[in-house]
User: What shape does this take?
Amino acid sequence: MPVYTVHAPKSLGNDFRAAPEKIVFVRDGFHVWAFLLGFIWLIYRRLWLVLLGYIVVQLAAEIMLRFTHASGFAYAVTMLVIALFLGSEAGALRRWTLSRRKWQQIGLVAADDEEAAERRFFERGSADSFAFSPKASPAIPMPRSSIAAQDAAGFFPMPDGSR
Assistant: This one.
């Protein structure tokens, strides 16, 4: 079942129910249309800086492949790798653009499609029931380890600990 991150402009604060049309749901996972039609998908989603980076990477790859007189197979593999990267990271790139535009992540929803995610998100109840906080404690308490944080040589930081 796909997972959606829910985003709203910071200007709305916790009063996002007043303007539900401004809330954006971003699906996590592989985006087929970004893979197949990367340039058009980026324009449609208005990811302008990502589009600029995509064009730069495409041009750099094109120049490098022509300069090295690469075969058609190498050209196809290079362009396939770029398309696979865009398809697999499309959701993360969209979330990055939203955070740059001063949007905040206000929740997570698991649903079959975006419409079901919207219904599930707004049916949850009060704003506190789906407020997302990265520092929030987990719903199920985790057992404490008998090993102190210092014994782990810093590889496994404790929650709310210093970094």
Remarks:
- The chain has one domain: 3-127.
- The helical segments are 32-36, 38-44, 48-67, 72-100, 114-123.
